[in-house]
Write a structure and sequence with these properties.
By secondary structure, this protein is an alpha+beta fold. It is built from four helices and nine strands. The longest helix is centred in the N-terminal third of the chain and has 24 residues.
């Protein structure tokens, strides 16, 4: 029995080699193009006037060149700010007073806001959070508004970066800072 060794003809070897080179170039080109973009803006030192460490805010901020924070008061008892990177909304934070009569809970507050899913409920029922949002009841000894409960809400719109553990850390720090602010001191 005659054995034949497998040899590639010259034209076939050339086309195989060309195809391999083109494929490698495409893969390398795509890898080069997908290199990490950078943040060229400075992370704000506060959120809605509440001082926070930048490492708490940064997990939710995408690469880009400009950042803006726009405060608003959509209704009495609500202070809100929207964080935008290159014009895209990436985070919304608010401090909201809910009337005692509404029997507000973090779950009820969460249901009134987009992206705040009550995936994780604390054992004491004081907060809920998910990868895209949180609602946290603020502990005020002497709330500015009697017969009202203060909540903080953080939302990460679709254009933002979800992160469940970072959300919990951010919401907790935000709620604690609000609790030590003048919002939790009744005017005498």
């Amino acid at each position: 029995m005659e054995q034949h060794s497998l040899t590639l003809s010259q034209p076939y070897r050339k086309s195989w080699w060309s195809a391999a080179c083109v494929t490698a170039a495409i893969v390398l080109g795509l890898t080069g193009c997908s290199g990490e973009e950078k943040r060229t803006y400075k992370i704000p030192p506060s959120l809605c006037g509440v001082p926070l460490e930048s490492d708490l805010i940064s997990p939710f901020l995408p690469p880009g060149s400009t950042i803006s924070v726009s405060p608003s008061t959509p209704v009495d008892g609500t202070e809100r700010c929207t964080v935008r990177v290159d014009g895209e909304s990436v985070m919304i934070a608010s401090q909201e007073w809910w009337d005692e009569a509404s029997r507000a809970t973090p779950q009820k507050v969460a249901s009134a806001h987009a992206h705040v899913e009550p995936n994780n409920i604390s054992e004491d029922g004081r907060y809920v959070h998910s990868s895209r949002g949180a609602a946290w009841q603020v502990s005020c000894r002497e709330p500015q508004r009697s017969k009202s409960e203060l909540f903080i809400v953080i939302q990460i719109p679709e254009s933002g970066t979800p992160d469940e553990d970072s959300m919990k850390r951010l919401a907790k720090a935000y709620a604690e800072e609000v609790a030590s602010s003048d919002k939790c001191v009744r005017n005498h």
